[in-house]
Amino acid sequence: MIKSVIFDLDDTLYSYQDAHAIALAELSVYAEQELGIPREEFPGLYQSRLEAAQKLMGNVAATHNRLLRAQMILEDRGLPLHPHALRMCDIYWDSFLGAMKPFAEAQDTLAALRERGIRVGIGTNMTAYMQLKKLEQMELLPLVDFYVSSEEATAEKPAPAFFARCVQKASCRAGECLFVGDSLEMDVRGALDAGLHAVWFRPEGLVLEEKVTQIIKLLEVMALL
Fold first, then answer.
1. More exposed terminus of the chain, fewer Cβ within 10 Å: N or C?
2. CB 216 within 8 A of CB 199
3. Count of CB atoms within 10 A of residue 116's CB?
């Protein structure tokens, strides 16, 4: 019997890709106007800082920190940290949060689960503060019973330690937890390897060759309980 359903956040409850594209476009304009970095060059530069941070620090939540990426770009280019580092971080996240829209069934799904007495959790990579800000911005936080970030778990999905923390907070056994996410490797296989049930959220269509449970709409979770 499923007692807790745990959702990934990015690209599971809203489109991360859409919000990120808008935020990165705004940041690219700033980079061109204030730093002299061509806007068409900036997205690749920004992505390279993520890869550099991961190489330097390993696969940890801090590598997702947008302030850290801005700092690395400025230092690499010999540009002053003041006032650009904090401004770049603010531009990105203000644009991102303003562009976010929860998927159509996100709120209804979380509410329906709680009405059935199912504990609702969020299990997400990235830093705790911004992930909670996202949930608050989308007005989903009141429907969440517990929350685990990779920053809190000190491990990123698909590490077993991450899912162990989710199970601990769910206050039930791993086999009584269902994890829902858009990433086959990080969310689904990571959860299955840790003893949880898992569902692959595939709004763009099912992948028939993958023998895992898949859904196209979030409300389909209710039929799996």
1. N
2. no
3. 10
Q: Supply the mean pLDDT for the chain.
A: 96
pLDDT at 60: 79
Both tokens assigned to 188:
């689904």
* Per-residue pLDDT reduced to its tens digit, 89-99: 999 999 999 99
Retrieve residue 15's tokens: 């489109």
| β pairing state of 177-181 and 146-149 | unpaired
Read off the tokens for 208: 């028939």
What tokens appear for 137 in the block?
A: 């911005």
Single out the residue of 113, 104, 105 nearest to residue 224, CA to CA.
113
pLDDT tens profile 3-16: 999 999 999 999 99
Q: Running along the chain, 225 residues long, what does each successive block of 10 average in pLDDT?
A: 98 98 98 97 90 80 89 95 98 98 97 98 96 98 98 96 98 98 98 98 95 97 96
- In angstroms and rounded to an integer, the radius of gyration of the C-alpha atoms of the chain is 18
Return the closest-CA partner of residue 94 out of 26, 28, 140.
26
Does residue 22 contact residue 95 with C-beta atoms inside 8 Å?
Answer: yes
**For 173, phi and psi rounded to 5 degrees?**
-80, 160
Structure tokens that stand for 152 in this block: 């809190």
147, 140 contact by CB (below 8 A): no
